[in-house]
Amino acid sequence: MKKTDTGLLTTGKTPSIYTSKTKSRLLLIFGVVLALYFLSTYQTNSTPGELVIGLPNLFALLAKFFPPNLEVLVASSVVAAFSETIQMAIIATTVAAILCVPLSLLGAQNITTNKYLYGFMRFFLNVLRTIPDIVLALIFVGIFGLGVFPGILALIIFSLGILAKLISETIESVDMNPLEAMQASGAGTIQMIYYGLVPQVLPQFSSLVLYVFEINIRASVVLGLVGAGGIGLVLDQQIRLYNLPNAMAIIIGIFILVVMIEYVSNKIREAIV
Amino acid sequence: MAELQMPPKKKRNPLNIAKKSLMAAVVIALYVWTFLGINIDWERAFERMANNFERVIPRLFRPDWNAFDKVLDAMIETLYIAFAGSLMAAILAIPLGFLAANNMTNNRFLTAVGKWILSAVRAFPDLILALLFVVAVGPNPFAGVLAIAIGSTGMLGKLYSEVLESVDMKVVEAMEANGANKLQILFHGVIPQVIPEFLSYAIYRFEVDVRASTILGVVGAGGIGTLIFFASSNRNWNEMGLIILIIIVVVTIIDFISAAIRKRIV
């Protein structure tokens, strides 16, 4: 295009869409994030330099896990430990699904109209969810000794927090019109919940329970690391004995279990909702 | 006489009934297997509980404030681990997210590979990854950072790819029609659309990683988990009480800040 000094087209630079204030703010945020990153890597001995030096070494050490000794997976003690892991998750999910019904009703704003009760429930559930599952397992192991029982208890409490929160949110999002209509025609609270709320929530409820079951399978895999039963216990022993190919076989077994459970649970959830 | 008219009954499909009864049978079988298979030594458990309950629970509620400095330091190390790990993951997940998004990678095979890698990574529990890295790099926070970085990449990559799949492709097509090259389309057409959501997910993942990294120390990967492990093996439940209290407070604060930032971004 020929240069003329009449049109706006020729001013050369297009104005930026961001103001200089936004730009400097973005730059500042970027700088802070970067500084925090370098501080974190420095504090944790994982600076990019150390990463580059460490990586070949890391791969060499990880190579010790290979080839996995897959024969371990059919050993009867390993099969038993895997079944125990699944059984723990099934029991914990079932109990949590039952216990979460009253908790989630109390934690739903549209059912529990008492502001203080609702606020307390919300607070309680939030606190419950911040306690890591492993910590719960350690406490219960401290009380009940090693075994499956403390593991199941830890899973129940841990999944109760998640499930009650998710379900109370589902309850809060239901259509209140049928419930109000029932109230107007003289239904009691229990009747309203049973005929008005349950049918609306049930598909979501089953889907969320399955989701929590997936979480519980993953959690119960690792609970054994602290002595709370299941496959984690066997994995921990193998690593302590430095039987790394065996450990890798178990890790592969865990991987297959988790993928399978997720696949089945996803299929069922798709069919439900 | 007017007969009472009832709504027509739903037709019952025999196939459906068969399917439902099969599912019911499977569920029942699963429960029978579970309850027959599980081996709980109730007697021993209750005997122990009778002995230990007094020694554990009341002490959890009487935190040992003398350990405050030590526990706080460990919690800060946990935050460092989570931050370094999630930032690494937030960056690592970008190429994987692009690979797994089927409107960015116009190759069904590559997309499938990308999605497969991401779900494979997601299937490993964080603690198992940490265990692997502790064996590989020794028991230090570096193992924790690696575990968090790898573990988060799986989920972030999946979320990123979903964001990418939902971008407005009209903009991209318009730019293509105007003769923009791939890089120009990427920088001016795609990235401005996805940046807020990418950031929001990365911050959310940091929140999750803070929770996850509190326990990594149990297998030796640094942070406050190390103290959790020692407190429980020394049966120092007063210190455990303090640790739990600090975890609850710090995690709640981080959740709150993260939610506030995310609200402003999106």
Could you please describe the fold and organization of this structure?
The complex is a heterodimer of chains A (273) and B (266). Chain A folds into two domains: 23-50; 75-272, Orthogonal Bundle (MetI-like fold), CATH 1.10.3720. With 273 residues, chain A is mostly helical. Chain A has ten helices and no strands. Chain A is globular, with a radius of gyration of 27 Å. Chain A has helices at 20-43, 48-62, 76-106, 115-130, 133-144, 148-172, 177-184, 189-223, 231-240, 244-272. The model of chain A is unreliable at 1-7 (pLDDT under 50). Chain B is mainly α. Chain B has a single domain (65-265), classed as MetI-like (MetI-like fold). Chain B has ten helices and no strands. In chain B, α7 runs antiparallel to α8 (182-216). The mean pLDDT of chain B is 85. The interface between A and B is large, with 61 and 65 residues.
